[in-house]
């Protein structure tokens, strides 16, 4: 009789569906596979989008989301949870309800508020609900600078100013760079204990669809594998940079990260 393979760590993903395959749950699944994890994708929202921008979205009924996630939680040992697009305050409350069933499980919050093309992926009050309700139970949040400004309610704030406003709500905050014109991308990890870690990487040409989903999912995967938080951030950033370096342009818009090696596609 053959010995069964050891189970891969399971990451519960609560994210939206992107029909272009560049972001959302497909990005989560591919990035987690690359870390050696199993993705359990729970759909929170449906979107109408391509690699250029998003034109519409619909948040699913909370009972459907609860039913999906509860089935998974009852069946699989959840090692981490990754949040992507929630889209409504009701969905924020849904996540809070689910996390009560997962005490001690690390939660990675990717506060998806805008698509790469600029289109909205949530109502105006979602950012406030994320900050006030979900940040306190999350291990880390991974906003880019425009998202951090929305969350901190500082339209022109620097990364440092946004972190100062947000850290009372969360223990670790990774504000990603790449939205200015600097020659190097600076990704800054701020911790509630006052420590600060700066990760720099070469700036790549082009615009990318799904880079934030890729990073947050890879980070959740590293945490699910038991890696320490600072090391997991570094591993996830390195992996994400490689996916952008090898990105392709399948449509008329942004580049899509290549999250899996060619021999795995």
Question: Your description of this structure?
Answer:
It is a single chain. With 265 residues, this protein is α/β, with parallel strands linked by helices. The protein has a single domain, classed as UDP-N-acetylmuramoyl-L-alanine:D-glutamate ligase (3-Layer(aba) Sandwich), CATH 3.40.1190. 35% of the residues lie in helices and 21% in strands. It is built from eight helices and nine strands. The strands form two sheets. The chain has a six-stranded mixed β-sheet. The protein has a three-stranded antiparallel β-sheet with strand order 7-8-9, sandwiched between helices. Residues 117-121 have low confidence and may be disordered. InterPro entries: HMP/HMP-P_kinase_dom (IPR004399), PM/HMP-P_kinase-1 (IPR013749), Ribokinase-like (IPR029056). Its EC number is 2.7.1.49. One of its GO terms (molecular function) is hydroxymethylpyrimidine kinase activity.
